[in-house]
Amino acid sequence: MSGAATGERFHVQVEVVAWATTFVGGDGNERKAFEVGASPGDTVRSVLKRLSGRFPALDGALWDRGSGELGEHIEVAVNDALLGIHHTLASPVKAGDHILLMGQFMGG
Known about the structure:
The protein is built from two helices and five strands; from the N terminus they run ββααβββ. It is an alpha+beta fold. A hairpin with a 2-residue loop joins strand 3 (74-78) and strand 4.
């Protein structure tokens, strides 16, 4: 039986890539990976809030201050699918889930 099934805490891996790593102490060129503690009932939102609470710059970049929803400059993927395809911020997380934060690339 998995930890999530027994009510035990587990970890979700959150990886930050490209220029978004500057919000978590990186130089914008490498990947930074974090294991974020979670419990049954936690969601993608609660995991991201927990991580962004550790990094004020990420918190400011990830969340829109007016709405409290995701800002527009960082894409979120859960288990290799962009948010909104198979998961939403309200989707429950489970042991082994992988959340990826990547800065959007814009140009003209």
